[in-house]
Each structure stands twice: as structure tokens, then as C-alpha cells.
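ENTRY TYPE: protein
WANTED: fold as C-alpha cells:
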Amino acid sequence: MTRDQRKAIEWQLKNYPTRQPQVAERISAACENSTVKYDREEVGRSSVRQHSDFTSRLDKIAERRDYRWCLVVENALNYFADSPIIDVVRCRYFEYAWERLYVVPVCQKMHICRATLFNYLDVFLDVCHKYAIKYGLMDV
């Protein structure tokens, strides 16, 4: 992982708490707006055809970059579900996202040393990088 890729992943992690509700709102709006309409053909016989574009709406949402970045972060969080890495990531990126919380306060809050903090973050960012490659957001 290059330095620029690491910065991009960290930026996405800091934006995740604000982006995830927006993506969830788009998905729920697509679910609410999908209705089934019935139509009669002109030849006189009745046919039931579904004119819902529900799947196309969901496909459009799935093609968006912000949705795929949310998938990357959620899959990485699920990957480390029972690990102390999750607590470090939440403290470093989610709780104090744009307030620059430096290394020493995070280490004191988590009761870990500085090397452990950076090791945990490196492992988590590597997993995020692998998922970003999987979803086509980054190159190898």
C-alpha cells in the first residue's frame, strides 16, 4: 500500500460516520419508492407485469463509490469483530474524526503503547486496502 492509498483509506474512515447514514437513507428511500403497478395489455387479456425499477435503483446505489467505501469499512470491521483492534480504530477514526486526536491521548485512553497502536492501525488499514481492491476502488 502506498502512502497516497493509506491517506485515502484514512480519509474514508474519518468520513464513514457521516457517510453511512446517508447511504442507508438512499437505500431505504429506494425501498419505499418501489411499488408494483399493474397494467392491462391492449389486446384485451389481462396480464400482470411488474414495472418496478427497484433492482435498477439498487444497482445504481451499488455502483456509487460512497456505497462501496461503506462496504469496505463494514467488512473490515466485521473481519475484526472480536479483536481489540476495533476499539483502537473507533477511538482513532470514528469518535474523534475531525478533531485531531494525537497518538499519545489515544494510547492513554486505550492503555496501549505507541508501537501497538501503529501495529493495530497498519493491520486494519491493510485489510481495508484488500477490500478496496476487491470492490474496485484501488489498484494493487
About this structure: The beta strands are 39-40, 46-47.
